[in-house]
Amino acid sequence: MDFFWNYIVVFLLILTVVVFVHELGHYLVARWNGVRVEVFSIGFGPEIWGFNDKTGTRWRFSVLPLGGYVKMFGDADAASATGETRDMTDEEKAVSFRHKRVGQRAAIVFAGPAANFIFAIIGLALMFMILGQPVTEPVVGQVLPGSAAEQAGMLAGDRVVRANGSAVTRFQDIQRIVRLDIDKPLQLSVERDGGTVDLVAHPRIVERKGMFGDMEKVPVLGIAADAAQTRIVHYGPGTALWQAVRESGNMISATFVGIGQMISGTRDSDELGGPIRIAKGAGEAAQLGIASVAFYIIMLSLNLGLINLFPIPILDGGHLVFYGFEAILGRPLGEKAQEYGFRIGLFLVLALMVFATRNDIVSLPAWEAIKRLFS
After folding, report:
1. Following DSSP, what letter does each residue of 223-260 receive, concatenated?
2. Active site positions, annotated
3. With contact defined as beta carbons under 8 Å apart, do 204 and 190 qualify?
């Protein structure tokens, strides 16, 4: 029962929140643009429970809770891949998604990812206002024996001021730069005894348990912060919002860098996770407390918004690419081009899901036991 509540239920609740925010963005901007929304669904497949509101929208929960969709009038399917081919009256055209201007359709599509970003930023800002943000001065409290930092000549008491050309104002900046610059040496400038010393370190790749329980391969410099230099900072609304935007930008940037490193081969593609790893992370976050759950929801919301903006047909980003061509050409792309685009997009998304799920399975302890059993 603990596994069921801490992993399955928490995962579904977190996913429901993130998906609801995403689809609500589509829904609200569609309604503001006069589009009739026929279905707002959390999950796919047959309906479990639902109701109709006064505008005629069917709000429902469906049997497969791994996602959701908003179906608008004028679309033949929930993915907006095809439109209805029948002739419409002027009244129907007025509320049809397909008959809105290209700018309006683009705004409706972009609103889903935008809602995820806005939700994450507001959530982070509230956390910084209520719980505060841990800020650690970039002062080395300990250098681990035999580490890359020791070999580079770092000493306890050093204050790091620059790393790979970027200014360092807190210890968290060092951690972020080390994780992102996995494919190159770490150029450090440190203040020591009133002067500045330049050092070069070569972080080592180790496998360790991540924040939410998943095993990950990360570069390690081998220094620990000075615990006495850590403080919790509570911000006012304006500063909290700015810090939330900054942290969200860092997370998004880290995601792009990580994807690029996977493509180039400098980062292991096994780090790419699917629903099983997300569920595992949700369970680990639940055991750490409500603040960890809130932060996990924020990270998942940012990732969902970002992934949906990838220029892959069937995702929101793919739709935006098609609308961009339509705006330039003055007409939609041909039906064949769109059809083949959506087929390719569906194949890419399914292939990515299969690959990510494969990574999830081979990372489970049970997989190692199976391998030992048959080896």
Report:
1. EEE-GGGEEEE---HHHHHHHHHHHHHHHHHHHHHHHH
2. 23
3. no
Q: In the listed set 232, 253, 285, which residue is the last one of a domain according to the structure?
A: 232
**CA neighbor of 197 nearest in space, from 136, 155, 235, 226:** 155
Owning domain of residue 369 = 2-33+100-130+295-374
Q: Are residues 110 and 180 in the same domain?
A: no
Do residue 122 and residue 12 come from a single domain? yes
Q: Does one domain contain both 8 and 120?
A: yes
What pTM does this model have? 0.82
Closest CA to 303 of 283, 284, 277: 277
- For 168-227, how does the pLDDT look when each residue is reduced to its tens digit (9 = 90+)? 888 888 888 887 777 678 898 999 888 888 888 888 877 665 544 455 667 788 888 887
Count of C-beta atoms within a 10 Å radius of residue 53: 10
Which residues, listed in sequence order, are joined to residue 52 by a DSSP beta bridge? Answer: 58
Which residues in 134-169 are b (16+ Cβ under 10 Å) and which e?
A: eebbbbbbebeeebbbbebebeeebbbebbeeeebe
Question: Same structural domain for residues 205 and 110?
Answer: no
